[in-house]
Amino acid sequence: MNNNQYNQGPDSCACPKGNSPASVSGRRNRRGFFHACFALLTGIAACIVAFPVFSFFRLPKRINTARKITVPVADLSKDQALFFDRQGTQIVLIDTAGQPKVFDAACTHLGCLVTWDQNEHVFHCPCHGAVFDDKGQVVKGPTNVPLKKIDFEIKNNVIVIS
Amino acid sequence: MNRLIELLMLIRKELDDRFDLTPVVQKNLTHKQVPRTLSWAGCFGGLAFLIFMIQVFTGILLLMYYKPDPERAWDSVTFIKSNVPMGWLIQRIHSVGANMMIALVFLHMARVVYLRIFRKPRELHWISGSVLLIATTMMAFTGYLLPWTQLSYWGAKVGTEIPSAVPLLGELIVVLIRRGENISGETLGFFFAMHIWVIPAVSVLMMVLHFLMIRRTGISRPL
Q1: E strands of A16-151, at which residues?
Q2: Is the CA virtual torsion B54, B58, B63, B66 positive or negative?
Q3: ipTM value of the model?
Q4: Which residues constitute the domain of residue A27?
Q5: Integer Rg of chain B from CA
Q6: Distance (Å, rounded) from C-alpha A113 to C-alpha A128?
Q7: Do B31 and A9 touch (CB under 8 A)?
């Protein structure tokens, strides 16, 4: 291999090869200094890359979409259920015996969305067969926690769920 | 700090006891020798590869929020740019990186042509490189549609019109790549699949071949 063709290895040095202890330690110090500089620059570069990448995994800003859900009482039909999205969670509005009720539609067992059975007047959970009555109480099933009630008010014949 | 260095040294020693890795790393990476006559222009290919890796990485990040659906694509890109922390930067790196990668690929090719590096024994380097050029432009073209803006829509419209010049089969090719007569949701889904999976996979395969062949023949040594 022709030595002129290739860069020489990192151990070779263009300076005359003195064997005096001073020059050897001087070269070691210089190498240590360059190693430290290299490590520092690499660290800074890594931080510059890491900052936006880690930032990216933070939660994004959400535009506040908290708006009220309003349902005119006239739109309710007896024994029917209406499902709404309330800031990412599903809620269900039922009207039985002229008495509207609002529940969180997530089953209290493992969070599946319940369905309304208008003939039997019960909620069925499709996942593990839990059954809740029209007051949200447990009729049957793996859970013993009733459906969560959601507060609402009726103003001028309009149901307002905040 | 010293403890950390000691720990790293210990890991290195234990790995070396088992796999003898240090000589392999030195030969191929840290003490790898390149021809002295190699100029800085020899970096273009490597830089294009670096940008490819940046594109893969930022692309994966963007994939966390992008939705390939005509109803939501534009909204999701706007969401990335305005609501996701540093999303604007990641999105910008991905789009600027695409342009940079094409520029670097062309510079790399220009050097190879100018120095006649494509001749024997490096013909297959040139051919795999040509496939990589097509793959790179295809990744840029398919990626351009994904934000679903007016520009990307008409860009895709004009771009997919080009194969219609092919005799006899032209119209069929246009319909096949548009997934229908016009640019639609199906086009978006098709371009998305091509952009994130098919073309990058082909590119990686070609890059592996390209790099292995360069290792085997060695870097061309101009006089």
Answers
A1: 69-72, 81-86, 89-96, 99-104, 115-117, 122-124, 131-133, 138-140
A2: negative
A3: 0.79
A4: 9-56
A5: 22
A6: 11
A7: yes
Structure tokens at B84: 């996701």
Structure tokens at B202: 């082909």
Cα–Cα distance measured from residue A57 to residue B44, given in angstroms and rounded to the nearest whole number: 32
Query: Do A41 and A81 lie in a common domain?
Result: no
B218 shares contact with chain A (CB less than 8 Å): no
Contact A6/B34, CB-based, under 8 Å? yes
- Domain range for B154 is 40-217
Count of beta carbons in the 10 Å neighbourhood of residue B95? 17
C-alpha separations of A98 from A94, B104, B176 in Å? 10, 72, 58
CA of A9: which chain B residue's CA is closest?
B31
Domain boundary among A34, A56, A78: A56
Q: Which residues does chain B have with pLDDT short of 50? A: none
Determine the Cα–Cα distance for residues A157 and A160; give it in Å rounded to an integer: 9
The residues, any chain, with a CB within 8 Å of residue A27's CB and separated by 6 or more, are A13
**Is the pLDDT higher at B217 or at A158?**
B217
CB contact under 8 A, B37 and A63: no
Structure token digits, residue A12: 């070779």
Q: How far apart are the first and last CA of chain B?
A: 47
Measure the CA–CA gap between B132 and B218, rounded to whole angstroms: 20
Compute the nearest-CA separation of B87 from chain A (Å): 6
Statement: the pTM of the whole predicted model exceeds 0.90: no
Q: What is d(CA B193, CA B171) in angstroms, rounded to the nearest whole number? A: 22
- Distance in angstroms (rounded) separating the CA atoms of residues B7 and B1: 10
Q: Determine, for residues A60 and B36 on separate chains, whether the beta-carbon distance falls below 8 Å.
A: no
